[in-house]
Amino acid sequence: MVRLAVVGLGKMGLSHYAMINAHPDVKVEAVCDSTGYVLDVLNKYTGVRTYTDFDVMLRDIELDAVIVATPSRSHGQMVEVALNENLHVFCEKPFCLDVTEGERLARIATERGLVNQVGYHNRFVGAFQEVKRLLDTGAIGAVTHVLAEAYGPVVLKPKGSTWRTQRTEGGGCLYDYAAHPINLVNWYLGAPQSVGGSVLNQIFSKDTEDEVFSTLYYEDGKSAQISVNWSDESYRKMTTKVTIWGTQGRIYADRQECQVYIRDGASIPAGYQRGWNVRYTTDLTEAVWFYLRGEEYSAQLDYFVRCIEEKDGNDNINSFEEAVITDRVMAMMVADAEKRPPVTSGIAPRPAPGKKFGLLFGGRKAVS
Amino acid sequence: MDRLLFGDNQFFGVNHMSEEKARAQMMRFQDLAAVIDVLDNAYDEGVTSFMCTTHDRIAMVCDHMRSNPQRYKDFQFLPCMPYAHKYANAVTEDGMIGALKRFLPEEGIVNAALRGGMSLARKDIEGITTLLVDAEMKMFTGLNTPVIFLQNVVVDLLLGLDFKAAFRIFADHIKSRYNAEPGFITMNMPKLLDALEEVGIENPIVCSNINKIGFRMCGGFEAYERALDEKKFRAIAMSVFASGAVPPREAIEWICQQPNIQAIVFGASSKTNIRNTKSLVEEFWRIN
Fold this sequence. Notes:
A: Dihydrodipicolinate Reductase, domain 2; B: about 50% helix; about 15% strand
């Protein structure tokens, strides 16, 4: 039995708690959150031990592992305390807002041989795993470009005041949404050399961005583009997708399916054929012990548990070390976006039409 | 309960196979008339039970049915609540308690405010749960709702948290306030049956994926077979075609051979598909 505690009972923490609590090899010893309300309700109806103080909890009970799902800004501090107690750690994404801190924690985890994993669940989506497998076998030849996108309807009006809507807390479209497609690109292509053309633009939010665009450059001429918008109502829910062009074909994948076009003369993987191939989630997804909101969420926690049981901290998917690569790319994008655009047209922007006459004469006035 | 229930995934762009197909469906069913058309097709084929999410657009379907009582006198709604994305996005914007407050009825309705305010303060989930249920049920006023379901995201969250008391609260409220049968949708049917038994919900209506290839049947295919064989509950099978992975004829033939299946829920966008499914079910499984 793995003795575990869940820290932070927001949207992700609560769902992690439900899934891990149903895991046959895990005993959830306690949950911890800074606000007492959710804790009191849980304790009253389920009897789980609750704490508002992380350090007190660690002093009180014997644990093997923790799941950290607090607001992103506090990840580093929580993770460090846990590692120093020799606990295996599963941390929600993004890992650390401060890249240097993330690197240091990754080193500590490795030195101590502790299992360390970050919740980039897309790496457990069957279709995205299939993409990785196809790239590794060279099915579409040499990759030239990746387009990684995520869209969804989170912030649709000028409102909202939780940590998720504040960049300083680790919220916003970049950390919340863009982290996922960036992480997929890092998985497929590795760490980029540089980033450029980054746009972190506000649409409705006051304290953070709602859309993110950027180009990632790689040493051999490969590139990737990130296109993300969490204020897009045309999507029913968050949708992440990647398109990858190679010399021998093209791959498109989202959570549901993996569409592959393979050119003549390519080394065709078993089960695939020249031209179009489609693999659906029903073929690519492995069953899980408990389903709450997608197999990938259950699968990543199961993987974490199995790594603990097999005492194999070095064979982790989404290790701290890998998550730091994504953190670093995001930090690079923030720095890039803050620079002024390097190439300008020299044409002065048109003055905005006067408000008073805007409705009637705005268009004509601006032209004259 | 009817043997064949009509689902609503196709109307809202829920498609477990393809995003493209989902979007095409959203475009097609943007106009309410297109939704009503398909519901009419189903109704005229004798599929008169509509198992639907409490999505804002369903409120418009409800209005349509209410304004044509003669035409739809046998029409039944089987509401499935809540529409979870609405809540999930609200939590990101307003936080947990803020989101909860947003969906509770407006201040001024004295009873509701008391029930909600006091239970928030007492950490008593009964008041809040029943208020949320009532808010979701508002759109069905005056319509026939013989079974009211709790959606799988909520059922499975509560199941995972071991928050079994909530099942009982939901069931009791549905029975007493709406004189209807409570139903539970789940992706973890064998585990849920044990939990419902523990809180004394007898012979429950449980809707889960049941298909030939075991797609999203968590707990394992054998556990599902055993539950169907041995447990006393009313099973509704969904995802019988496993999102299209099993051909219709093969899928229906198989499901009709399983014990204890009380009903099948299916979605379709055309008259032909509705008719085909109906005739397959009639062929393999005598509908009275």
